[in-house]
Amino acid sequence: MNLVDMSRTDDASEFYTIELVDGVADGLRRVTRKGWTGEVLAFPRLAYRDVRGRGELARPGVYVLVGPNDGSLSKPYQLYIGRSDALRTRMDTYQTAKAKDFWNYTFVLTSTRDHPLSTAITSCLEADLIKLALDFGRAVINVNQPRPLALDGSDTRFLREYLKHALAILLLQGAPYFDEQLGVHPTSPSQSGSASPRRVYHLSAKAKLTIASGHESPHGFTVLEGSLARRKVTDSMPKASRRLREQLLEEKVLVIEDDVRLRLTQAYTFTHPSPAASVMLGYSVNGVDRWKDEGGHSLAAVRKAETLEAAENP
Predict the structure, then answer these.
(1) 42, 171, 249, 278 — which has fewest CB within 10 A?
(2) In contact, 42 and 31? CB cutoff 8 Å
(3) Are 177 and 169 in contact (CB under 8 A)?
(4) How far apart are CA 296 and CA 257, in angstroms?
(5) Where residue 7 falls among pLDDT bands split at 50, 70, 90?
């Protein structure tokens, strides 16, 4: 059974073909694209016994093992990202390895039989995915950052193209662990040099106890590294936001800046603008009203204006 999904690019529509190999949505899915030599497999661990005999797992590639990180609101996922010149040989060992027994879902990034990925490409792809997951900060992953092999110009271009499609497919297949944009500092509407700049919003409180900046992202609302939070909390702060703040402090994502402020040590994506604002301000607040752009327009006002403009100019 085949499904076809589509994502827009600057100059044309791109079609990713999703093959439901077992005929069911929660079984093995194989995703390809016309003109692209890459392939992505997505399947539950329960299906590994049947999947392991497929030709894709005899090829070089990168795998992402996924499981829950129970009890953590700030990092709800566990990931193990690795590479191999023979995926099946490596992945067989994880079926019985107690240290890696956390996983319940798998993504495999490989290529067609006639265009196998080189060792250098898979080493760089592994390193890039680990870095993107670390930058996104929503998962516990490999402790050590691997050292990728050097690439020449043509391989670098190939890797960039491969990674672009792989990330799109991973997001399409429900993998919210990577965000390729977090490594690029957003630009405000007044800045130039970006084809599609993200609108930056700011959050402030009296006495400059809170000075934070962030932007909307596909996964929620991202507050930028270096943003300052009010250290004191009030009774009105939602319990969920209070627990999340405590975990961010435990994991050093938030650290003490001084007697009255905390500082965010990395960009962090919250599920919604409201918990983002509550964690930074220390009390209950409607985030879509409090986050404002450089012109003083709230996120709610910007959304309304964009919706009206879209309706008037379909």
Answers:
(1) 249
(2) yes
(3) no
(4) 27
(5) very low
Bridge partners, residue 270, by sequence: 221
- Residue 232: CB atoms within 10 A of its CB come to 12
User: What average pLDDT score do residues 107-118 get?
Assistant: 95
pLDDT, tens only, 233-265: 999 999 999 999 999 999 899 999 999 999 999
d(CA 135, CA 36): 27
The closest of 148, 149, 128 to 64, measured between CA atoms, is 128
For residue 143, the model assigns a pLDDT of 67
| Cβ atoms 261, 267 nearer than 8 A | no
Beta bridge partners, 78, equal: 67, 140
Structure confidence by residue, pLDDT tens digits, 132-147:
898 888 888 876 778 8
